[in-house]
C-alpha cells in the first residue's frame, strides 16, 4: 500500500529524496530481514535461493562501485545522489528479501498477490478517472508529516491526457500497470473461491487503462507479458483471451475514435520522435564513459540527469556500475524468470503452473520496459519489480519445501 497508494511526490521533508515512505519501509524491511537471519540458526528451507543469491552478488558489485567512486575524485553534487541510490537499492532489496524468505505458505502468498492486484486495480481506476476528468486529483492530497515536491502535474501527448495515477510520470505508471497485469489475470483465472466479478475487476481495470497511457513502454510491456502468458496457456484459454483482445480493440475504436490510430502512430512515427532520437544518440556517449571505467563504472547514482538522460536503464547501469554490475543486475532478473520457467515445467498442479507463468510474465515485462526509461529514478517501478522477484523466489521456496516434505513421507 505504501508503494502504490502514497503519491511519489510526498516525502518526509527533512530526509529529502530519501524520505519516501515506501523507501523507509523498504530499508526497515532489510533491517528486519537481517535481524531474522541473525536470530535463525537453521537455513531457510527450500535449498539454494537463486534470486537471493543473485541479489547478493548485485549488492556486492554496487558496493565495490560505490567504494571505488568515493575513493577517487568526485563532484560534490554527485555524492548525495550516490548515497540516495544506495539507500534506494537497499530498500528494494529489503522488500525482495523479506518477501522471498518470510512468506510461510502458499495461502499467505495467494493473499499477498490478491492484495497487490487490488491495489493495482485501484490505481488503474484512478488513471481512468484522471483521463475522464482531466484532473490529477492526487496533487490535492496531503498527509500529515509528509511534504510535497514541486513539478508534479498532468501530462499530455497528442492532445490526449496521459494518466499517471500516484506515480511520478506516465511511463512509470504504465510500466507498473503492465507488471501487475499478468498477476491479475492469474487471479481472475485461478482464485475461483472469489466471486466472478470481484476476481476479474482488477484485471479489467488494468487492461482498460493501458491504451489510455499513450506510453510506448506500457504498450511494449503489455505485449511482452501477454506473449509469455499466451505461450504458456492451453489452447482454449489462449483463444478466449485473443477473442477478448479483438473485441476490446473493436470497442476501443468505437468508444474513442482516433485513439487506436494514435497508438499506431507512436510506433510508426518513432523515427521522427525526438525522444527516440535522444535514446539512440546516447549510445556513443555511454560508450565513451564505459571505456573510462569499464568494470565497475563511475558509481550508482553519480551520472546526474543534468549530464544526460539516457532513457535506457541498462545503458545507464553500464555507465554507473560497469559491465560487472550490469551483468549482475541482468542475472538477477534472469534468476527470477528462469526459476519460474523451471518450476512451471517441474510441477503438475495447474494453479502453481499458472502462478509461475504469471510471475515469469511480470518479470519479463519489467525487464523489457527497463530499455525505455531510467527506471532506477522511479521508485514505484523498481519497488514493484523487486517485489515480484521476491514473490518468484517465495513461490519456488514454498514449492520446493513441499516437494521435499512429500519425499520424506
Plain-language structure description:
The protein is mainly alpha-helical and 409 residues long. It has one domain. Helices cover 70% and strands 2% of the residues. The strands form two sheets. Strands 1-2 form a two-stranded antiparallel sheet. Residues 404-409 have low confidence and may be disordered.
What structural class results from the helix and strand content? mainly alpha
H/E series: HEHHHHEEEHHHHHHHHH
Number of helices: 14
Low-confidence spans: 404-409
Which of globular, elongated, flat, extended, rod-shaped describes the shape?
globular
Strands, total number:
4
What value does the average pLDDT take? 90
Topology:
Elements: H1 2-5, E1 10-11, H2 21-38, H3 50-71, H4 76-102, H5 106-133, E2 147-148, E3 155-157, E4 160-162, H6 170-190, H7 196-209, H8 216-232, H9 235-255, H10 259-268, H11 274-292, H12 313-346, H13 350-369, H14 379-408
Antiparallel strand pairs: 1-2, 3-4
Helix pairs in contact: 2-4, 3-4, 3-12, 4-14, 5-6, 5-7, 6-7, 6-8, 6-13, 6-14, 8-13, 11-12, 12-13, 12-14, 13-14
